[in-house]
Amino acid sequence: MPAKVLHIIGSLGLGGAQVCLKYIAEHSSENVEHFIYPLRNDTDIEIKGNIIRFNYPNYDPRKFFAILKLIRMYDIDIVHAHLHKPIIASLLLRYFKRVKVIAHEHGSVAYPGIQYALYRALLRLLYRNADVFIAVSNATARWLRELGIPDAKIKIIYNAVHPAEFDFQKVSQEQARKALCIKQDDFVIGFVGRLVFDKGADLLIEAMGILKDRNIPCVLVLAGEGSEREALEKLTARLGLENRVRFLGFRRDVADVITACDIGVVPSRFEPFGIVALEFMQMRVPMICSGADGLAEFVENGKTALIPIANTYEDIADCVERLIKTPALRQSLAENAYKHVQQFSVERQLDEFNNLYLTMLK
Q1: What is the pLDDT of residues 129-153, one digit of tens each?
Q2: Where in the chain are all domains bearing CATH 3.40.50.2000?
Q3: Distances in Å between the alpha carbon of 339 and those of 48, 118, 284, 343?
Q4: Where are the beta strands (DSSP E) in 188-297?
Q5: Which fold does the domain 173-343 belong to in CATH?
Q6: Backbone angles phi, psi at 268, to 5 degrees
Q7: Which residue of 24, 121, 236, 302 is most buried, as measured by CB atoms within 10 A?
Q8: Would you identify the CATH topology of the domain 3-160+345-360?
Q9: Mean pLDDT value of segment 164-170
C-alpha cells in the first residue's frame, strides 16, 4: 500500500510553497499517494491531483476539524503542512490524533508583523509535536534554530525547477515577444513575482528612472500581482516611465515571459529561497539578483549572476547598464547559471521527499 500524505496549505495562490507542492503532487513516486487540502478556496496555480475543498469562511474553526475528518476518511499516514497557519493547525492536531507531522517552513518564520510574531511564539511552545521541520534553505534552518528547534528535527530540502516546464528551446524569443506585443528590437528587462514590498519591484522601477536619465534604451515587464501594484503604477507615472514599464498582471505562461527577456532581475529585500531565480537560470536568461538570505546560497556574483553591492536602485541601475553594454558577460552569466541550476532538479527534490516519507513510516 502506498504511503498516504495529506498536504495542508493556506491557499493555492501563486507562490514558492505552491510551486513546491505542485511538483510534489504531480511528479511523486508510485509509493506515495497525495491529498491536498487548501484552507482557502481562491486559486491561481493549477495542480493535478486529489484536491479537497470545504466551503467554510475564513477563520472558521470547522476548517481545523476537517483535517481530523480527512485523516480518518483517507487513512492518512503523514500530514505535510505548508506555511504558518497550516503548520500551527497540524501541530495542534497531534493532541487529537497520533499522526506523523511534517512542518514545511518556506520562510514565514522570519516575516515581520504581529501574526508572524504570534506564529514564532506558538512554534516555541509546539515544535515538539512535529516529527520533522523542512527548511527550504540554510537561512530558513537558521531562523528555526533561533526559536530553539533542535538540529535533529530540521532537514534542509532546497526548492527546484522543472526543466520540462522551463525549457528555453520550447518557444523562441521572437514568438514570446510577439505574444506579449513587445517590439523585437527592444532590450527587455524582466521581473516575475508578487508585487509586494519584500520582492523589491519598486527598486527596479526606480532603477528604470535612472536608466532613462542616462539615455539607456530598455523596457521593463513585470509579471505578477500583489498589494503594491497600485503604488507601483503611481511610481511609474511619477517617474514618467509609462512607455518603459509594462504591468502584465498574473501570468500562467511564466516561462514564455522569461523567454521574452534579455535580462532577469530578482531585487528581493527578503527571500527565504527564490524559485524565480532558478527559473531565470534554467531559461538561460542572465540575471541581476540580490544577495538576500536564501538567494545567496546558490547565486555567485560575477559567475551565475550580478549581485548589486547594496541592492539599492542605484546599484541595480549600474548592473543593468553594465549588462546592456557587455554582451559577452550576459552570455557567460547565462551559461554558468544554466550549468549550476541542474543540481536543483525536480528529480533530486522528489527523491528527498519520497525517502523522507518512507523513512518516517518505518
Answers
A1: 999 999 999 999 999 999 999 999 9
A2: 3-160+345-360, 173-343
A3: 30, 41, 9, 8
A4: 188-192, 219-223, 245-249, 263-266, 287-289
A5: Rossmann fold (3.40.50)
A6: -60, 135
A7: 24
A8: Rossmann fold (3.40.50)
A9: 91
